[in-house]
Design brief:
- This protein is mainly alpha-helical and 69 residues long.
- It has four helices and no strands.
- It has one domain.
- It is 70% helix and 0% strand.
- The longest helix has 15 residues, at 24-38.
- The radius of gyration is 12 Å and the shape is globular.
């Protein structure tokens, strides 16, 4: 089974970090994705895929590093 490279960070802790870097429309899209995840409309893998498409790999990695410290 694949192990994450670092400490896992709950999505709820990543949202404020990511939203601070996004414009209003992107932040609203991210919130909508999180609501869909919590409502079981999409699964974790889909949430991560859509989030990566929305914010980009670099911003997502930076947010993870910031929360893991």
């Amino acid at each position: 089974m694949h192990q994450p490279a670092g400490k896992q960070v709950p999505f709820a802790q990543l949202l404020p970090v990511l939203e601070a870097q996004l414009d209003k429309d992107q932040a609203m899209q991210l919130e909508g994705l999180y609501i869909r995840l919590k409502s079981n409309v999409i699964n974790k893998e889909e949430f991560v895929w859509y989030t990566r498409q929305l914010v980009g790999d670099h911003m997502l990695k930076m947010a993870l590093q910031q929360r893991q410290v």
